[in-house]
Design a protein that fits this description.
Number of strands of chain B: 21
Largest interface: A-B, 48 and 43 residues
Largest sheet of chain B: 5 strands, mixed
CATH architecture of the largest domain in chain B: 3-Layer(aba) Sandwich
Number of domains of chain A: 4
Radius of gyration of chain A: 26 Å
Largest sheet of chain A: 5 strands, mixed
Strand content of chain B: 5-15%
Number of strands of chain A: 15
Shape of chain B: globular
CATH topology of the largest domain in chain B: Rossmann fold
Oligomer: heterodimer
Distance between the termini of chain A: 46 Å
Helix content of chain B: 40-55%
Strand content of chain A: 5-15%
Strand order of the largest sheet of chain A: 2-1-5-3-4
Shape of chain A: globular
CATH class of the largest domain in chain A: Alpha Beta
Chain lengths: 524, 772
């Protein structure tokens, strides 16, 4: 052994690390996934979040691994019960002082989970193509739904109680119509075929949605329907003056282009399909008790399924839409189809079929300050009343500008959220006061949403690294420690060089690029 | 960026930079200079400092907003500081603040009243615990206030009540000595005025003697007190001297001299004519064999406080006469630093700051550590809001503390010594600075350089790594240990940090031998310990007892127990890091291990006695509020965890608690103490754990909406019972007109208007007002 190496044991694995390594470095070398929040891979130690703490045998207390040097002979545990308990506690305490929406209420309220804020931003940015892709990530039939949806999303819009909800449905229709009228509409990319075949009984909204998302996973999708044409209730129950059939046809045509095979005028029999397909989805709408295939258990109103996955009592058979509970609105059937497609995908790839709902934090509706603060950032005009049928481009942009962008800009990259999901945390465990709800919008590139700050100090260090003249400072102490420009200076004065770097390295959605700006547009 | 524009602050900032220098570690003194000049930190002055010194603006902002001493907005004409230390709290500091706010028509969050005349500040502790509750208005300290009397402190005093160690030698030395102590808390009781009166009277009557300012006697409950050494009458102590009584004291000790006698005679006559008849006869105050005083003094053993009440703080000759600097001399002559460390190890001395780490072992680590120059620090950032022995030692025995430091410096080969003293202790700072000047002039420092650095109001800076951050000019945030300061401390150099009292014990050990010291005490806790005895005890004060003395001996024998009609409930030890020892465990001896076994710590020496009027949930809430105020805010557990704990306790005290709150409180307490980075967070939950352990039923009563001690204002109601004689006193004193004046009838308290200030209950001559 080299003189400059030391040996220690981490999670039962003996290893040798260079002298001067921290326990964090050693643990990572041992393959342990030790999470961090306030740690920067350079420039000394800080040790404030305590998320990386580990247990060292013989020491009375847990130690922050990022700031503790590895010593010869140490026996370290990175995931013992004590460590996990401590880590969860630290994270839940941080969450108790973290105010914001992970996912905007409109998006979580939409049964299909349309990313409404992102769509609105794309419309505002004059990028209807992008808006189309965003919509089609969750809704295969936006122009169709845009005419018939009862808009649960708008019911949850934070502006509803102020001056009317954002017209999400009409905006979505605007995007969908734009696509539907293109000669060469967007066809989502299809990965290489997996060779798995899925039979879908019913070509209504749930079945079409299931097919669409299965295709996007690379599986073959074949739809069986006893009607002459696909669309189910959309075609046979909705009046044509509400939903012009060419719109529905255009959107179904995209699914066909993606590779869906339609067996129309065909009555499918589950028992016959099972041996020929890798999986079957029951999506033919309301299923009466006598019609329920044998071997499929029923609940009160329809087929009994595992919550969130659509898995029935028969392995490999899934159910979505009205088959599970009659009278579902189309957007819910579409959401169901999506969820079932994901479950089937898990089933086909040998993964465990579970519904994993990521952690979500949502600000209480009674929080007036939150709404007022966000309102500052949005267009102040009242809800647009369209002059004609649907929104014109200008009207759409005006309406999109009303969106307060409630969701979190870092929803997919937030360290706090990913750890909250990983450890199944309860955000409401600790009640009490929290940071002020304020947004510093003085800077033209970034926004600072104080209530999402964790006082990790990464931005303070990054600003200093960039040699900012003013930079960011810790202000005050204790629970009321805040990050701010020194001497009351706003962000615009404090950060002349490091703004983007600070926004990118902030582990939560406290500092982020203004909507519409993208990371790659680095100035320097 | 250059600020070329002439600014009103420019000249002052330049002068301060010239005076202090522009090194980043001097930022705190620089900011203190600015605040002393402008009474707050004007933003423009801060910008100028950044501009002129090159210290990063972020650092200046961070420091200026971290320390509670610094104010960011202008203040009113007078600064009213309400002490919220432990002793003040248990004696009703909240009621005092409420009363002042009511008087000044200030809302609970306003800082300055509408006239701009008074700014009100809450302070953690001014270190006058035996006078609780205390309010400091500008330079004047007022003790023993009630909600009714508190507003009287707002009448600005005519004479400055403070001056430390002012020379008193303008009288010729004679056979009679009048000794009076005038350190901070004595001065607050009026000792300075008494001294002035004594001097005037002595001069007036031509008394053959001198008035001497001496060190703290520790007998705080008898202040202002004067001891007269009279060869004829013997030694006489006069306690609780009222204004005007000094004259009579001097007269009593007048010797021959017709002129004097004559003058005295006339004065007596005038007295007889003019004096109101309500004062006690002087004689009753001066029994030299006062049994109460004997009980107070007898069980004590003074090592750190040796010569208390006798020696003058800055009388070097007297200090030498009593053996001072013998230890240092011997050490320097022996030229064997290792033997000094050996002696300290052998004495068994453990750090008096609270944790009790063996002092000698720390010294050896520093001596053996590589890296120079090494640094010696005296930790005088006495943060426990119920303790003031370090202040007293610095004020009254500065030479002893410095001698201890010089011995330590010699033993470890250190030439750079720093005394870090709380900014709240201006007299301690002045006293130690004066002592350093004297020793420098006498050439006693040798090659050692000593300097005083004032803290800026942060309890966490009592933690050694946070103290070091502060000395480096940063926010007082702790660092992860190891490395320990003994190996890598101030600017990465080996640093020895010891508490004031620890240094004060060193000279005695070197002079009398390690064995003599280790013979005192109990097991692994040797020597003596100084305690600040305060709270609901009859004889509060500063006491020094051998380790191993029981808590009961301290409270009942020395302290004389609690007031008549009340029962001794518990003592609080170790301040916000300690906990409570219930009366049932009062036979526990004060030694490190025994205290730990009952769930408290020795701490720095605060001992606050509680009687049955104290609510233990309220006490836990008080400490938790303190801790979360003082948390530096760095690590998650302490920053958020202590706040959540405080909020739960707030809910419980306000009757909003839920049964599950107690479990969550315990879970949080465990997590905060397990997971926090430094001692503040690690020990902060102790008062909660300790009160939950011994007084869980009180918590449960609060969950049911009752405060058994009748203390939590949201859970109590004031009622008039049938003892009421209709004297109207209560109605007269009620500050919110909740009681209508109904002569000769039983009065009624309007529960909605009532603010629970307790003024009526205290005013009632018939005990007719009760708390339900």
């Amino acid at each position: 052994m080299s003189e400059n190496q030391i040996e220690l044991t981490i999670n039962g694995i003996a290893l040798s690390v260079p002298q001067g390594s921290t326990l964090l470095e050693a643990a990572r070398q041992a393959g342990a996934d030790v999470p961090t929040l306030c740690w920067l891979p350079r420039g000394g130690t800080w040790a404030s979040c305590l998320v990386c703490s580990v247990e060292v045998q013989g020491m009375r207390r847990l130690v922050p691994s990022c700031a503790t040097l590895a010593q010869a002979g140490q026996v370290v545990f990175t995931d013992s019960d004590a460590v996990v308990r401590h880590r969860k506690m630290a994270l839940e305490l941080l969450l108790s002082d973290h105010v914001g929406d992970c996912i905007a209420p409109c998006q979580s309220g939409c049964p299909a989970h349309l990313d409404v804020p992102a769509m609105n931003q794309a419309i505002l940015d004059d990028d209807l193509a992008l808006a189309g892709r965003i919509v089609k990530d969750t809704i295969p039939l936006p122009a169709t739904l845009g005419r018939i949806c009862p808009t649960p999303c708008e019911g949850r819009c934070r502006r509803k109680t102020e001056d009317g909800a954002v017209s999400v449905c009409l905006l979505k229709r605007h995007v969908g119509d734009h696509e539907a009228h293109l000669l060469d509409p967007y066809v989502p990319p299809i990965p290489p075929p997996t060779g798995k075949r899925v039979a879908i009984i019913g070509a209504g909204p749930a079945g079409l949605s299931a097919a669409y998302f299965l295709l996007r996973h690379g599986h073959a999708a074949e739809l069986f329907d006893d009607h002459e044409e696909p669309g189910g209730a959309l075609r046979y129950e909705v009046p044509a003056d509400r939903l012009p059939r060419e719109i529905l046809d255009a959107e179904i045509d995209v699914i066909r282009k993606m590779g869906a095979v339609f067996h129309l005028n065909t009555h499918a029999d589950l028992a016959q399909l099972i041996p020929s397909y890798n999986a079957v989805v029951l999506a033919a709408g309301t299923l009466s008790e006598p019609d329920t295939p044998s071997g499929i258990e029923r609940a009160n109103r329809g087929v009994k399924v595992q919550k969130g996955t659509g898995q029935t009592s028969l392995v490999g058979v899934f159910a979505a839409g009205g088959a599970v509970a009659p009278g579902k609105i189309s957007v819910r059937s579409i959401g169901d189809g999506h969820a079932v497609a994901d479950s089937v995908h898990h089933f086909l790839t040998g993964e465990k079929v579970t519904s994993s709902i990521p952690f979500n934090l949502e600000v209480d509706r009674s929080n007036v300050t939150f709404v007022q603060t966000r309102l500052q950032l949005a267009d102040h005009r009242p809800r647009t009343v369209p002059a004609g049928d649907g929104l014109s481009l200008d009207e759409a942009k005006a309406e999109a500008a009303r969106c307060m962008q409630c969701g979190c800009a870092k929803v997919d990259s937030c360290v706090l959220r990913s750890l909250a999901t990983r450890y199944s945390l309860d955000a409401a465990k600790f009640k009490g006061s929290s940071r002020p709800i304020r947004i510093d919008d003085s800077h033209d590139e970034i926004l600072f949403e104080e209530s999402k700050c964790t006082s990790c100090g990464i931005c303070v260090r990054v600003a200093a690294e960039h040699g900012e003249n003013l930079g960011l400072a810790f202000h005050g102490r204790g629970f009321d420690t805040r990050i701010s420009g020194p001497f009351g200076e706003p962000l615009a004065m404090a950060l002349k060089k490091a703004a983007r770097a600070c926004a990118e390295q902030c582990p939560t959605g406290a500092l982020y690029l203004r909507p519409g700006l993208h990371a790659e547009e680095h100035k320097d | 960026m250059s600020l070329a524009v002439i600014s009103p602050y420019s000249e002052a900032v330049d002068r301060l930079i010239e005076e202090h220098g522009s090194r980043p570690d001097l930022l705190i003194p620089l900011l203190q200079g600015v605040q002393e000049k402008f009474r707050y930190l004007p933003m423009e002055a801060l910008r100028l400092i950044a501009d002129r010194t090159g210290i990063p603006a972020t650092e200046i902002e961070g420091v200026a907003s971290f320390y509670s001493y610094f104010r960011r907005s202008p203040v009113g004409e007078h600064l009213v500081r309400v002490c919220h230390g432990t002793a003040c709290h248990v004696r009703g500091a909240d009621l005092i603040e409420d009363s002042l706010r009511r008087h000044l028509s200030m809302s609970p969050t306003e800082e300055t009243d509408r006239t701009g005349k008074f700014t009100l500040e809450r302070v953690a502790c001014v270190g006058c615990c035996s006078l609780a509750p205390v309010v400091v208005v500008d330079q004047a300290t007022f003790g023993g206030l009630t909600a009714e009397t508190a507003p009287r402190s707002l009448v600005p005093p005519t004479v400055s009540q403070f001056a430390v160690g002012a020379p008193s030698g303008h009288l010729s030395r004679g056979p009679i000595k009048l000794r009076i102590a005038t350190d901070s808390c004595c001065a607050a009781c009026g000792s300075l005025r008494v001294r002035q009166e004594l001097e005037v009277a002595a001069k007036h009557y031509g008394l053959q003697g001198s008035v001497e300012t001496v060190s703290c006697t520790g007998i705080c409950h008898q202040m202002p007190m004067c001891e007269v050494l009279d060869p004829v009458l013997g030694n006489v102590r006069y306690s609780k001297i009222a204004p005007g009584e000094a004259d009579a004291i001097v007269r009593r000790h007048l010797k021959s001299g017709i002129a004097g006698q004559l003058k005295a005679g006339i004065a007596s006559l005038l007295d007889w004519i003019s004096s109101p008849n309500d004062s006690e006869p002087l004689e009753s105050k001066c029994d030299p064999r006062d049994p109460m005083l004997c009980e107070f003094i007898h069980p004590q053993l003074r090592i750190a406080m040796e010569g208390n009440g006798v020696t003058s703080p800055h009388d070097l000759a007297a200090y030498r006469e009593s053996g001072g600097f013998e230890g240092l001399k011997a050490v320097r002559e022996a030229e064997d630093p290792d033997s000094v460390i050996e002696a300290v190890i052998k004495s068994g001395l453990r750090g008096r700051g609270g944790a009790g780490f063996p002092t000698g072992r720390k010294w050896r680590t520093v001596r053996n550590a590589s890296g120079t120059p090494k640094v010696l620090i005296c930790n005088g950032d006495e943060g426990d809001p119920g303790a003031f022995m370090d202040r007293m030692l610095l004020e009254s025995f500065p030479f002893r503390v410095l001698e201890g430091m010089l011995i330590a410096a010699y033993a470890m080969g250190i030439e750079d010594g720093i005394l870090y003293i709380r900014a709240e202790y201006p007299h301690a700072v002045a006293s130690i600075q004066k002592a350093i000047e004297i020793l420098t002039a006498e050439g006693l420092l040798g090659s050692v350089k000593l300097r005083v650095v004032r803290g800026a109001g942060a309890f966490v800076c009592g933690e050694e790594t946070a103290l070091i951050s502060s000395l480096e000019g940063h926010r007082g945030t702790p660092r992860v240990r190891p490395p320990f300061p003994a190996e890598s401390g101030l600017f990465g150099k080996p640093t020895c940090v010891n508490n004031v009292e620890t240094y004060a014990l060193i000279p005695w050990i070197l002079r009398n031998g390690a064995e003599a010291f280790s013979a005192i005490g109990n097991g692994k806790s040797t020597g003596t310990k100084v305690f600040a005895l305060a709270g609901a005890v009859r004889r509060g004060g500063l006491i020094e007892v051998p380790m191993g003395t029981t808590i009961r001996q301290i409270v009942e024998e020395i302290g004389g127990g609690v007031a008549e009609g009340r029962t001794f409930k518990a003592v609080l030890m170790g301040g916000p890091s300690g906990g409570c020892v219930p009366a049932s465990l009062a036979d526990t001896p004060v030694d490190y291990e025994a205290l730990q076994s009952v769930g408290v710590i020795m701490g720095s020496g605060g001992m606050v006695v509680l009687d049955d009027r104290s609510c233990m949930v309220d006490v836990a809430r008080f400490f938790m509020t303190f801790i979360q105020n003082e948390s530096c805010g760095k690590c998650t557990m302490c920053r958020v965890g202590t706040r959540r704990m405080m909020e739960i306790l707030d809910r419980i005290c306000e009757g909003q608690g839920q049964p599950e709150d107690l479990d969550q409180l315990e879970t949080l307490a465990g997590a905060v103490s397990q997971g926090s980075l430094c001692g503040l967070g690690q020990t902060g939950p102790n008062p909660v754990l300790s009160t939950l352990r011994h007084y869980r039923s009180e918590y449960e009563a609060h969950l049911q909406g009752r405060c058994p001690a009748g203390r939590c204002t949201k859970l109590i109601h004031y009622r008039v019972n049938d003892k009421c004689i209709g004297c109207t006193r209560c109605a007269q004193v009620c500050p919110v007109e909740a009681i209508q004046m109904q002569p000769h009838q039983r009065h009624i308290i309007d529960d909605i208007k009532c603010v629970r200030c307790d003024v009526c209950r205290l005013a009632c001559p018939e005990e007719a007002i009760v708390i339900e």
